[in-house]
Amino acid sequence: MDVRILGTDREIDASLIDADEGTIRDQLREYEVGEREAFGLDIEYPDDFTGAVMRSIAAIPFGET
Question: Does pTM surpass 0.85?
């Protein structure tokens, strides 16, 4: 799934997100315009080091980076 957010084109593997594409796009749009500070999407992270890093990054509260 290709999306554009914050002026950048990104490819998202929607098969790892437990939501339909419309919900994903809606939440990205809301985040981009400042209406959302956290995503309500269940994401399947890999079971390796990369997945551990992704889970750690996702746990950082909005505005704390």
Answer: no
7 occurs within a structural domain: yes
Residues 24-63 have pLDDT tens digits of 999 999 999 999 999 999 999 999 999 999 999 999 998 8
Sign of the dihedral defined by the CA atoms of residues 32, 34, 36, 38, in that order: positive
Residue ranges of E strands in 1-65: 2-5, 8-11
**Number of domains into which the chain is organized:** 1
Instruction: Round the CA-based radius of gyration of the chain to a whole number and report it.
Output: 12
Task: Quote the domain boundaries for residue 26.
Answer: 2-58
| Both structure tokens of 61 | 């509260």
